[in-house]
Every structure is written in C-alpha cells, then in structure tokens.
C-alpha cells in the first residue's frame, strides 16, 4: 500500500499584520508595528505551494482564521455592533484587540499533531488541534482549526478527530512544530518523535529561565494516548532550556526530520546522546535501513545564526524520485555561514541532495519560515481519495486562489488599520468566498 506525505499549507489571511505578539519569538517582536503587505504574503505562500506541487508533491490548502475575532472580543465583555466591539476594544484594551487580530494561524505547523494510519491502533489518521495555551492570541484558534480539519478530512472510516487538549498551561500543546516522524517508507509503521520544553507536574526538572517553554511532556504523552500510538515506537525528548532562552520557541526552529534523517543543531536537546539512543532503538525494531543523525556544530553555525536565518525551520521533503531536498528561506542563502554549510552538506554522504530557496519574507518577518507554513499529513492511496478534493491544489485551483487574493487583499496594512469596519467586511466577504472555493461549508462563527 503506497503512501505519500502531503503538505497542507496555511493561506495567509487578508488581515496579515505585524503586532509583535509572541514573547520568545525574536523575529515577531523585532518587527512589531511594521507595515505588512497581506497580498504579497498570501501570494508568496501560494508560490511556495505551487513550486512544491510542480516538484510532484501532494499539496493541500488550509484556510485562514477570521480576524479580528469578534466572537472572542464579545466573550471578553465588549458589546454592541461589530464595529462598536472593535472600537471599544481598541480604545479600552488595545493589547487585547491586537491579540484578537493575530495573523498567526498562517503557521499551520502549529495547527495540529497528525499521526498516520500506519502508526495508530485503529489504522486511521488521527488529528488533534493544538491548544496553543501559552499565547492568548493563538489560544483562540483551535475551535476553528478543528472545524477546518474536519471539513477537509471528513470521512470517519479513514480519519479520527480529537478535541484539543484542556486549555491549561499544564497541557500546553504547540502541535506539529514539536513533533516529527521517522520511517523507511511513509506507509511503514514509523517512530513518532515528540519534543517538549518542560515537565508541568515536576518543577525539579530543568526549565528555561528567560522565555517560556510552550510544550509540556504531559501534553505530548496525552496526544500519544489519544492517537493510539505504540509506546515502543514513541520517543520523547526535552528541548534544551538554553536554546529556548536563545529564542528557539519551537523544536522546528532548531531541528527537522524526515524518514531516516534527523537534522539538528548540537544544542537542540538536553540529553542528545540519550535521545539518539532512543530513536535508534525504536527505529531499528523492524528496520535494516540506516538512520542519519546530521548534527550542525556550534562552530559551523551558531544558535543565533540558526534563529536569524531559520536554518532548521526548513522543509525536509522526499521528492517522488526519492531524493531528499531542503526547502529553505532566502535568508539562509544570504547568510555566508549557513549557505556554506548547506552547500557542503549536499555533497556529503547523506540522503539530503539539494537545497532550494524561497522568498517567504512576509512570513519570516512575523516569525515563521517554510516549515511553519505547512502541516504534514501522511496519506495512503485510499485516504488520498477520501480527502476533500477541493482543498488539494492543481493548476485551476492555483489560478482561482491567485484571482481570489488579488480581488480581496490589500497591499498595505498597519496595525492601526485593523479597527476599520470595512476591513472586517472585506475579510468576511473573502473568507465566505474561500469556503465555497474549498468546499468547506460553514466553518467560521460569522457563517453560523
């Protein structure tokens, strides 16, 4: 039974803005209040999707969230018409208002954790939306994320959907940004690798001192249980507290994996030798294929340079030919040490044979690179047929989405523009049309 790893990229929303909301995310904070270009951001993301589809990858689309989130503002006591709700919130609690305007749903690596049917006891693909409790502006996403996932993967014979974990920091869950999977072929039973930042119920364990650890081991273990994973093929690793304090807010900013490769920085994990042993033990249970640990040394690329360029927030993909390729942001190409490292890497005896650079500057400025923009979903032939086909890309869909973006998106947006009632109307009109293009039905509160 053949299986492929599909990328479901998040479309950038029509209110894409830089509000600098994410403490611990250096890029997000450093670009606070800059003028954004929603149209360019959405088209850049779409160009990346098309490029990967042209490489032969299965490519899907995840719709953005509605912003400003009027429903969340009403829950917090702001009342009146939608325009009055926005005006009152902006005047009385501007930080709350800006949080409810967050553009962060574009980073669909945080949308959910996904386990393929080859790994689960009931042989279905399991989805758990991330609760994102560490940041208020992201904690308002999971309900709509769950609606969108259910509308795309809407066949209960093949797909199982779970409610996000309890909304509490003890079960803080950041989704696939702290999860990856190793396997020989995608249809084989794989090793699911969960990376966490802290123990919520044991304060004697190491924790970062400057920035928060967003993922708990308790959350990772809960998802493994919900997804019915084999404990012998499930590995938990703690992210090094020092790299969290250096601005590495998710594991996918310091490590990335695919099939039989873990590409990571020397300082990524707290107990690296033990992590490697656990992976080898779990991976080798039924495997004769060698596993490749590709460790980037401090003297080759510093943690700070890795964060600045998002060397590890790259997509590590296997093309239909079997060749493994890194999809990197232009910032990697513009850095002498990072570009030099990548040029040397692809000439070595590892599965990674090419690097391709993409301009995703609008996303990078808000704190996310190519890997942040996609959710990986392994699908068998039968599961591919069960996916909502309107959410998969082809030439016609790309053309339709380009036209949709050019019709509805502004090319300049400042945080102060977010209280404009006309922008809300524009956004809702755009999203209503998008749900029809993607065959999603009514997934947003304003459509109910």
Poorly predicted sequence stretches spanning 5 or more consecutive residues: 22-29
**CATH-level-4 superfamily name:** Succinylarginine dihydrolase
The general outline is globular
| CATH hierarchy: architecture | 5-stranded Propeller
Structural category is: alpha/beta
Q: What portion of the residues fall into strands of 2 or more residues?
A: 15-25%
How are the strands ordered across the major sheet?
A: 2-1-15
- Per the CATH scheme, the topology name is L-arginine/glycine Amidinotransferase, Chain A
The CATH first-level class comes to Alpha Beta
Number of domains: 1
Which value, in Å, is the CA radius of gyration? 21 Å
Write up this protein.
The protein is of the alpha/beta class and 448 residues long. The chain has a single domain, classed as L-arginine/glycine Amidinotransferase, Chain A. Helix content is 34%, strand content 17%. The protein is built from 17 helices and 15 strands. Strands 2-1-15 form a 3-stranded mixed beta sheet, sandwiched between helices. Strand 12 and strand 13 form a beta hairpin. Helix 2 runs antiparallel to helix 16 (395-408) and helix 16 (395-408) packs antiparallel against helix 17. It starts with a strand and ends in an 11-residue tail after the last helix. The model is unreliable at 22-29 (pLDDT under 50).
Task: Give the arrangement of secondary structure elements.
Blueprint: E1 3-10, H1 26-30, H2 38-54, E2 59-62, H3 70-75, H4 82-92, H5 94-99, E3 112-115, E4 125-129, H6 136-139, H7 142-152, E5 159-161, E6 179-182, E7 191-196, H8 217-226, E8 234-238, H9 241-245, E9 255-258, E10 261-265, H10 272-283, E11 292-296, H11 303-309, E12 315-318, E13 324-329, H12 330-334, H13 336-345, E14 352-358, H14 361-365, E15 374-380, H15 381-386, H16 395-408, H17 421-437
Parallel strand pairs: 1-2, 4-5, 7-8, 10-11, 13-14
Antiparallel strand pairs: 1-15, 3-4, 6-7, 9-10, 12-13
Helix pairs in contact: 2-16, 16-17
């Amino acid at each position: 039974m053949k299986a492929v790893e599909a990328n479901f990229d998040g479309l950038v929303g029509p209110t894409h803005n830089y509000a600098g909301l994410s403490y611990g995310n250096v890029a997000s904070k450093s670009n606070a209040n800059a003028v954004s270009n929603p149209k360019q951001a959405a088209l850049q993301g779409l160009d990346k999707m098309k490029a990967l589809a042209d490489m032969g990858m299965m490519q899907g689309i995840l719709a953005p969230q509605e912003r400003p989130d009027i429903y969340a503002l009403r829950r917090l006591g702001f009342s009146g018409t939608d325009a009055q709700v926005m005006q009152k919130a902006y005047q009385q609690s501007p930080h709350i208002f800006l949080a409810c305007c967050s553009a962060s749903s574009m980073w669909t690596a945080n949308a959910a954790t996904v386990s393929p049917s080859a790994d689960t006891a009931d042989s279905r693909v399991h989805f758990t939306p991330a609760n994102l409790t560490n940041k208020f502006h992201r904690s308002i996403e999971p309900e709509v994320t769950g609606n969108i996932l259910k509308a795309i993967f809407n066949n209960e014979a093949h797909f199982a959907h779970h409610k996000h974990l309890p909304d509490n920091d003890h079960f803080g869950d950041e989704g696939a940004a702290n999860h990856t999977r190793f396997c020989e072929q995608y249809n084989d039973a794989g090793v699911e690798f969960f990376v966490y930042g802290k123990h919520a119920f044991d304060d004697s364990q190491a924790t970062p001192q400057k920035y928060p650890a967003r993922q708990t081991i308790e959350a990772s273990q809960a998802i493994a249980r919900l997804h019915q994973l084999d404990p012998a093929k499930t590995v938990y690793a703690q992210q090094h507290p020092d790299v969290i304090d250096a601005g590495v807010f998710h594991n996918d900013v310091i490590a990335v994996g695919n099939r039989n490769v873990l590409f990571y920085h020397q300082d990524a994990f707290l107990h690296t030798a033990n992590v490697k042993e656990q992976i080898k033990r779990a991976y080798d249970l039924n495997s004769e294929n060698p596993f490749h640990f590709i460790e980037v040394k401090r003297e080759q690329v510093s943690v700070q340079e890795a964060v600045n360029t998002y060397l590890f927030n790259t997509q590590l993909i296997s093309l239909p030919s079997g060749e493994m390729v890194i999809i990197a942001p232009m910032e990697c190409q513009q850095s002498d040490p990072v570009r030099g490292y990548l040029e040397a890497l692809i000439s070595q005896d590892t599965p990674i044979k090419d690097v391709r650079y993409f301009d995703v500057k609008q996303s990078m400025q808000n704190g996310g690179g190519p890997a942040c923009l996609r959710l990986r979903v392994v699908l068998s032939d039968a599961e591919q047929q069960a996916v909502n086909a309107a959410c998969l890309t082809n030439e016609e869909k790309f053309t339709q989405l380009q036209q949709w973006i050019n019709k509805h998106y502004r090319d300049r947006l400042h945080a102060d523009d977010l209280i404009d009632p006309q922008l809300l109307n524009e956004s809702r009109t755009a999203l209503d049309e998008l749900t029809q293009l993607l065959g999603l039905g009514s997934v947003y509160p304003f459509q109910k």
